[in-house]
Amino acid sequence: MSKAPYEPPTQSVIGQIVDAVLMLALVLVTLYLPLLLGLAGGGTTTKTFDNPTWEALGQNAAMAGQWEKLGFAPAQAAEIIGKRFDYEFSWVALAITGVVIIGYFVGMLRWSDKEYRDVIAEHFDDRPGAGRSGGA
User: Fold this and answer.
1) Are 6 and 119 in contact, with CB atoms under 8 Å apart?
2) How far apart are CA 121 and CA 132, in angstroms?
3) Biggest distance spanned by C-alpha atoms of the chain
4) Which of 17, 93, 108, 116 yields a CA-CA distance of 20 to 30 A from 131?
C-alpha cells in the first residue's frame, strides 16, 4: 500500500504578500537595528598633520601625482589620508551571533520536523529495503 504523495500546504496570495512584506521588514530591522543601537562599527580615528606634505602623508611621487590629478593638494588629502576606520572585534558579539544562528537553525528543524519526515518518507520509504532503519 503506497502512501499518498506529500502535498505541501497551500497559501493564499494575500498570505504570500504578507510574508514578503514581513521578510522585507525583518531584513531592514536586522540591518538597521545594530546601527541605531550603536552596536555596529567602532567609528573612526583621525590623525592630524601639522604641516602636510606628500612625504609627511606617506605618499610617494606616483601616489602624489594621482592625488594631484584628482585635484587634491596635500592639505586637502591630509583629511582623507588621516581618517582611519577603527575595526574592533568582539568575541562576545561573535558568540551571540553564533548562538542566534544555531538556535534559529535548530528551531526551524524542530518546527518543520513533520514536514521533513513526510517528504523523506515520500521519497525513500517506497523503495525495497528502505525505511527508518536505513536498509536491509
Assistant:
1) yes
2) 9
3) 88
4) 108
Q: Which three cell numbers, joined as nine digits, stand for 115?
A: 514536514
Query: Amino acid identity, residue 54?
Result: W
Domain ranges of the chain: 12-41, 43-88, 89-136
122 burial (CB, 10 Å; 0-12 / 13-18 / 19+) is middle
Higher local confidence (pLDDT), 104 or 43: 104
Q: Does the pLDDT of residue 112 top 80, yes or no?
A: yes
Cell triple for residue 23? Answer: 521578510
CB neighbours (10 Å) of residue 45? 10
> Which pLDDT score is estimated for 133?
47
Cα(21)–Cα(26) distance, integer angstroms: 9
Using alpha carbons, list the distances in angstroms from residue 107 to 2, 25, 135. 31, 21, 29
3-state secondary structure the chain: CCCCCCCCCCCCHHHHHHHHHHHHHHHHHHHHHHHHCCCCCCCEEECCCCCCCCCCCCCCHHHHHHHHHCCCCHHHHHHHHHEEECCCCCHHHHHHHHHHHHHHHHHHHHHCHHHHHHHHHHHHCCCCCCCCCCCC
